[in-house]
Amino acid sequence: MLRHAAPRRAAASTRQSAIAGTTSLCRHRGSGGGSGYSRGAGSSRGRLQVVAYRSELSDMLLQRATRYAELTAAAGSMTRQELASQLGPLVGPRGVAFLADGVIYRRDRKRDVGQLVEALGRQHRAYKHLVYRPVVSAVNEEQGVVFTAVYWVLQNSGEPLFGAKEPSGRISKGFLIDKLSFDKRSGGWVGGRAGGRAGGWSAVSNHIV
Description:
Layout (H helix, E strand, L loop, with lengths): L6 H14 L2 E4 L18 E4 L7 H19 L5 H8 L8 E3 L10 E3 L1 H14 L1 E13 L4 E11 L15 E12 L6 E11 L10
Parallel strand pairs: 3-8
Antiparallel strand pairs: 1-2, 3-4, 5-6, 6-7, 7-8
Helix pairs in contact: 3-4
């Protein structure tokens, strides 16, 4: 006869395992003491761990990508000096190379900290960032690449756009996916590409340069 845990107890165990990143595996013995799941006559219960592999490098790259998203959101309330001092440690010594996407940017370009600060300043002068929040990130450790999906809600309440005489006040919202490349040794941000946009911000990149 197989022995089963009470349903209520099993449900609680499943919830706890999901939070911890592990899943319990019950191994039952028949009345004769034999089972294909058992490691011996005295073993009736084991534990199978399901964990996500996270290294120090992965954590560092994810933290740096998240920090850049935070600075993008907060740039409008920071001085140029404050933004440069916060952005500087993230950027590689040779600046950041942005790859052409064939839609908004027709050619590759490279920007240093000062140019990135100016680009973010232009973005915030045109758009009030009501929401700019990374919702999920994935890291490719071998390539030193982080993909971050960002949800944004922006309002043209600053500088007029596209030849208009005054701001439109229009609120746009959507998602974008940032691809950030990092030097795996130093952790410096060396490359970027914004793409996969959805919503009303299709004509404005996360990296206005």
